[in-house]
Amino acid sequence: MSDGLGDAKAQAQLKDFTNIFRLDGKVAVVTGGSRGLGLHAASGLLQAGCSKVFITSRKSDACKEACAALNALPNLSPGAVAISVPADSSKISEIEKLVREVGKHTDHVDILFANAGATWGADFDSHPENAFSKVMDLNVKSVFYTIQKFAPLLEAKATQEDPSRVLITGSVAGIGVGTVLGPNSTFSYSASKAAVLHLTRNLAVELGPRNILTNAIAPGFFPSKMASGMIGEYGGIEKLAKSNPNGRLGQPEDIAGTVVFLCSRAAGHVNGDITVIDGGKMISAGRL
C-alpha cells in the first residue's frame, strides 16, 4: 500500500495542462494568409485564442475578404481581431512596409507564419529563367528577409520560458522528388522548398538563443488554387486520395491543428523540425 508520500511527490511534478494548446493573447502575422493553407492557419490561430492576427498577401481585396470571414467566426476570444495589411512579399521594400504597418498596432509579435509562396510548371527544356528566379525569390529569399525584418518584434517580449515562434511553409516536394515529367514539372518549386527547409534548420540555430523557435511544415496535397494543376496531373482528388495510406487528402484542420500545436506551449522544446502533413504518402511511395 502507498503511504501517500510517493503520490504527493508525483502530483507536485504535474503541471496544468488544461491550456497547453491555447494561444491566449498572442499576436500573429500570417503571410499568404488570404486563402488556402494560410487562411486555414489564421483561422486556427484566432480560434486558439490569439488576440491579433495580421493577414497579408499581395492583393488588398483578398486580405479584406479573408479578415471579414475570420472576424465573423462565432467562437473568438473577446476583442480578438484579424487585421488586413496587404503587401507584396517578393519585394524587400514591401516587407519593410509590412513590418512598419504591423508595428503601428503592436509593440511585439509572438508568431510569424511565413507562408507566402508560388509555383511554376514547365518541362525541362523550356523552363524559363525568369520563372525560376521568381519562385526562388518568393519561396526562399523573401522568407529569409521577412523573418529578418520581423526579428526585433519577435524578440521584443520573447523569453526562454515563452519563446516566440517562426513557422515556414515547405512542401513534401522539398523532401522527396517533385513532379518531373511533362509540361507541369516543378523544378524551381521543388528546389525552393528543399532550400527553405534547410534554411529552417539554420535559422533554428541562429534564432534559438534569441528565444525564437523556428520550425517548418511540409504539406502534401491539399485541395487549393495553387495545387489544382498538380492534382489534375495526378488524376484528380479521388485518385490521389485512394493512393494515400489514410485514404484522403489534406483538410483545413490538418494545417490549423499543426500550426496551433507548433505555436503553443506543447511545442516549447521543438526547434529546427520539419513536420510532414501528408497522411503517410511519402513513406508509402516505395511500397511493393
From TrEMBL:
Database matches in SUPFAM superfamilies: NAD(P)-binding Rossmann-fold domains
Positions of transmembrane segments: none
A Pfam family it matches: adh_short_C2
InterPro entries: NAD(P)-bd_dom_sf, SDR_fam, Sec_Metab_Biosynth_SDR
Keyword annotations from UniProtKB, A to Z: NADP, Oxidoreductase
A single GO molecular function term of this UniProt record: oxidoreductase activity
Family as reported in the entry's similarity comment: Belongs to the short-chain dehydrogenases/reductases (SDR) family.
Entry protein name: Gluconate 5-dehydrogenase
Species name: Tothia fuscella
Lineage: Eukaryota, Fungi, Dikarya, Ascomycota, Pezizomycotina
